[in-house]
Amino acid sequence: MICILLVAGHGTVLETQIKNDATGLYGQLTGVPKALLPGIGGKKILDFWWETVNTRQLFSEVYLVTNADKYKHYERWATANDFPVENVVNDGSTTLEGRLGAVADLELAIRSRKLQDDIMVIAGDMLCADQNFDIAQVLRFFRSKPGELAIYYELEEGEKSSSRGIVEVCPETHRISRFLEKPQEGVTALRLASVVFYCLRKATLPYLSDFLTLQPQAQDRTFGRFWEWIINEEKLPVFGMKLPTGFQLIGQVGLSDYTKWLAHYSAQQQQCPAKPITCRSYARVGLMGNPSDGFNGKTIAMTISNFWAEVTLMESQALVLLPHPLNDPTEFGSLQDLYCISRKEGYLGGLRLLQATCKKFYQFCSKQGIALTKQNFTLKYDTNIPRQVGLAGSSAIVSATLKCLMKFYNITESDLPKPTRANFILNVETDELFITAGLQDRVVQVYEGLVYMDFSKQLMDEQGYGDYIPMDMSSLPPFWLAYLSDPSDSGRIHSNVRQRWLNGEAEVIDAMKSFAGLTDQARVALQGMDWSRLAQLMDENFALRRSVYTEDCLGPGNLKMVQLARQVKYRVKISKIISSFPMMFLCSFCLSFGVFACPMQFGSAAKLPGSGGAVVGLCLDQVRLVEMRRAFQEAGCVFCVIVPYNPSGTIGTNSQD
């Protein structure tokens, strides 16, 4: 690979305004070529690009193309910066009118030096907001694609698309489908701007001379016109890679814009290491339909603010992952202490989740054509989500880590949309760590709040994700949560159901369809605030799960908690019924309908909110809720009233209507 830096521009507005500046502030810059003007951090603009590409492992040679008018400046710069003077190419032009044009300058360097290799070409007079991006990642992406490469970025607020080459990029293949050179206002709403930063294959280099034959006028020999021709007319495959940063070609701006952008980018660099980034993700409870999310079903789930995972990222010299003192213990009081902790909590803490997320993040960005900076960081985490009780504690750590990485590397919502983000989190756990999991938890932790999810096969096949619909949380009934204080591994709860489903076993297929049907009914009940109906559906959800997974698979701890909730519920209900009806009527009523099917019961429901180890319930009576808490605590379980987490900031936790 050979790199060519272009700095052959002639007299510009900027150079003229510096020369005529009456303040005297810029007198020392008079006559200085624009690429040698001060850049970010006090470096000359060209210094940054030379430092970026001065790597023998990446480039066999680096050339610099300038004009005759400024040649001496760049010759002096070359000797002062250990740049090979013999690689400074003089295009012979001395005036703006006599210029060759950018494409002609590139073709001159290739022809005169008889270059026979892939070429990276960069405008050496370009201000770059990010001084740490990884150019090796750019080369890897280029070599992974069967075509040319154009770097682009997302225009900042205030930048006009009419001053840039605008690209339309296919989000799946990353191929540039259309190139618009400085389109007029209103022609396009696209905000992805190409810059003079390209990679061309050796086989494509002859197109340069073909283009020059078609464009005899220097003013038309721009890279914008070249790419319009190559992409829109010749239909050559050209791929786009996004740098999450900003660029400004100094040759295209005046003095005020140069100082403005220099100050803006410099301020961004100064702010980068200032404050740690802290992000939270919340535990979730599956209210309906789970575990059908892994079987093309439908679910409703909700994030709760009772429990959370928090990750903090701080810029640092080396990349460091800090173990959690409780969840990743490396020091024990005794062998017995090690035995007790390992028996209860296992051997796998949260550190592996941080590492797997970072690895997958780099892999994702490389594949998606997003070049990351070479900044390092330190990651640490904290969580109060109980382990192994099916409240999505692992995915909460992954989700919070991903939020930090996105903020640190300036990855936007368009780069990593919410549906894709949920898939990413699931892939971290399933592909990297072999954790049995479905999409529900990751979706609700990304969207946050109360979310209805449809994972139908048609949707998953057509778009790669389901339909995810946030629901109103302004008035929710009082849900409660109880979990085992000494749980077993909740991941074993799925048993052989997946294999039975893959084998097409009718019982499992029908059960997953029934879970989806219950979810649709629960959505209607939630929207209509029909809490008694919702409670009935929650009980039906558990009964269906019990039948398809069997009691042996669910385990005695989970069954005991559900039974305990219903025993408390029915004891209270019967006492209320007795106080309201004559005994003879009550007996005949219960014989007719059965206590457990009594349509007059409006107490607590109970089901598993996740893979096992906890139960979630719905109780409409505060007196009963107090009794419920006491009963669970006496049984050695932990009990709490759920506080829903609503991303809008408003929380509705109680409705008796």
From TrEMBL:
One of its GO terms (molecular function) is ATP binding. Residues 32-208 form the Nucleotidyl transferase domain. Keywords: ATP-binding, Nucleotide-binding. It holds the Pfam family GHMP_kinases_N. Residues 368-449 form the GHMP kinase N-terminal domain. SUPFAM superfamilies: GHMP Kinase, C-terminal domain, Nucleotide-diphospho-sugar transferases, Ribosomal protein S5 domain 2-like. PANTHER family: WITH PUTATIVE URIDYL PYROPHOSPHORYLASE-RELATED. This is Glucuronokinase with putative uridyl pyrophosphorylase. It comes from Oncorhynchus kisutch.
